[in-house]
Specification:
151 residues, two-stranded antiparallel sheet, single chain, alpha+beta, 31% helix, globular
């Protein structure tokens, strides 16, 4: 890893663009310069989340998604992942995703647009124009709904 691959002290570009699905389907995950700027800003904001979680390592399961990858996985057509503003992650050394979401929701010093408890992971978005939302996702066959707060 070179210094150019680092987006912030603890996060690399590779962590944000890696996707097993993209690799399997040969989908190019190279971000545009504009997306790269957003990924860098997202990584810096994620440093604040890591600090909040007692410096527990954060494991990114989904960061940037190209349009082709987002379509392949059935992602929302207006997902913040498409523009480099969103991350799905876990931090097992801190706690489970519900505990993480509660900590983030109660940290008014963090600036985020969405924090969603998605069961096995946390979704957080840092889109600058987004309003602060704290939600819980509810999954049913072919449909996802959301409720306010952390259930």
């Amino acid at each position: 890893m070179t210094e150019l691959d680092k987006l912030s002290p603890n996060f690399t570009l590779e962590e944000f663009i890696h996707s097993d699905t993209a690799m399997r389907l040969s989908i190019d995950q190279t971000p545009s310069p504009l997306v790269l700027q957003a990924l860098t800003a997202t990584a810096k904001q994620l440093e604040g989340v890591r600090d909040l979680l007692g410096n527990a390592p954060i494991y990114i399961s989904s960061g940037y998604r190209s349009y082709a990858l987002n379509k392949a996985i059935g992602g929302s057509p207006n997902s913040d992942h498409l523009d480099g503003w969103a991350v799905d992650f876990t931090a097992p050394r801190y706690g489970n995703p519900q505990q993480i979401c509660k900590a983030i929701a109660n940290a008014y010093s963090l600036s985020f647009s969405q924090c969603i408890y998605e069961g096995r992971w946390v979704h957080i978005s840092f889109r600058p124009t987004g309003k602060r939302q704290v939600l819980t996702a509810h999954f049913a066959p072919g449909k996802t709904t959301y409720s306010e707060g952390i259930a």
